[in-house]
Amino acid sequence: MSYLVLLFSEMRDPLDLDSYTFLSFLALMAFATSLTGFVNTLFGRTKIRLKVMLIISALLFVIYYFNVPSAASLAFFYLSFVAFESFYLIVRAMIRREKSAFIVGGGVLVFFLFIVLVIIFIFLNKLNTIQISEEMGDDFIGYVLILIFISFPISISAYLGWQFASTNLSLVKQLDEVNRLSDINLKQEQEKQQILQDQNDLLEKQVDERTFELQKEKQKTENLLLNILPHEVAEELKENGSSEAKYYDEVSVLFTDFVNFTQSSEKMGAEKMLVELNECFTAFDMIMEKHGLEKIKTIGDAYLAVCGLPIKNENHAHQTVLVALDIINFIEERKKTHPEALDIRIGINSGSLIAGIVGVKKFAYDIWGDTVNTAARMEQNSEKGKINISESTYQLVKNKVHCEYRGKIHTKGKGEMDMYFAIETKNI
Question: What's the pLDDT score for residue 33?
Fold first, then answer.
């Protein structure tokens, strides 16, 4: 519009008047329509006024097609009405203390003021009260119009700059808030992860502790089971829940018994006698483990062991005699420091037997058969500090052990039996 004002001021060819007039009308209507749309969008409470103003604008274009002077006059009044409408809406928004109204309102109010002044000057000019061209110059109206039209876009630019700055500031604040919340969320997530990690570490530690305790208890149970049963039998019992009795055809059975145990108990007393038995049997256990014999049980002051089961051992008889010799040597050495130490006699027999678990509660690993009974008879017919062996054992160890033939000795339930004292091992 400002440019068209300049064109009108410099126009020399009357033929250009129609084109400039149409362009001016078009620019005026575009400006008025934009102004009412802008102000109503920002400060209008309803959209009805905007719709009415847009309809009027369209009607003016129709009127311009039929009657240009009427359309031009109506366009001027339309612009004036838009200016007053804008003034009203902006002042109302200022009263409501809307920040945008103060920014946009400055330019729009100046625009409105210039229009009022122009109307006054034109009115006075027609009344010949004042001659604008004489008083202000020929180009005054043009300059005023340019100022009018420039004031509005300047105010719009200021508003858009303020709106952009406000939006940008709001976005910056929102971004800061997002970052703050993100940091808080990250910190909370880290704390959560740390809590979960601590809980996980605690649970793992507790699991490790419980596992260690269970393994410890399991080891205790296994050790206790191995103290009762041979290793192979214990493993079979753990895997299957039961163990079948087995037949062994080549084993040697050892019986020991303390001489005059009852009389010695009365002299020493039950407590001292219990200590004596514990120390002796503990030493016997170590000797059995040294030579690979399996302890079966103790019966009062008697000690029963066997060699050749559950793992087969071809030297079962010789190993059993070695155990017996070590027991005799232990007793002899003990008597040197313990005058009250008990004397012992030992019996050994070799043959076949059956071994297995008896019962399901408080079960015990035991051996049965004539070989066991004969070994017991060998012990009963032995002498203090002697190792009495049967004919079957003698035949297995005669090349490795010095033996003394005792002749045929009557045995309860067995009749006459050949017996030998095992003296010492041979140097081969």
Answer: 86
Q: pLDDT: is 329 or 152 the higher one? A: 329
Yes or no: say if 421 and 403 are a contact pair by the CB < 8 Å rule: yes
Q: Do 278 and 400 form a contact (C-beta atoms < 8 A)?
A: no
Count the neighbouring beta carbons within 10 Å of the beta carbon of residue 66.
Answer: 8
CA atoms within 13 A on the CB side of 251: 29
Residues 6+ apart with CB under 8 A from 93: 42, 43, 100, 101, 105
**pLDDT tens, residue by residue, 180-203:** 888 898 898 888 888 988 888 889
Question: Pairing between strand 387-390 and 344-358?
Answer: parallel
Residue spans of alpha helices (H) in 127-139: 132-136
Decide if 367 contacts 247 (C-beta within 8 A).
no
What would the two tokens of residue 209 be? 């502790």
Query: What are the backbone dihedrals phi and psi of residue 243, each rounded to the nearest 5 degrees, phi first?
Result: -140, 130
Q: Measure CA 333 to chain center.
A: 64
In 3-state terms, what secondary structure has residue 243? coil
117 pLDDT more than 90: no
**Tokens coding 302:** 């008697």
Cβ-in-10-Å burial (0-12, 13-18, 19+) of 74 comes to: middle
How many degrees, rounded to 5, is the angle at CA 425 between CA 298 and CA 281?
20
* Mean local confidence (pLDDT), 288-305: 89
Average pLDDT over the chain reads 81
Question: What domains can you pick out in the chain, each with its CATH number?
Answer: 2-176 (no CATH), 246-425 (3.30.70.1230)
Global pTM exceeds 0.70: no
Kindly state the tokens that stand for 164.
Answer: 């952009």
CA distances from 285 to 111, 147, 276 (A): 120, 123, 14
CA distances from 154 to 39, 108, 151, 157, 167 (A): 15, 9, 5, 5, 19
CB atoms within 10 A of CB 305: 27
Contact 78, 58 (CB under 8 A): no
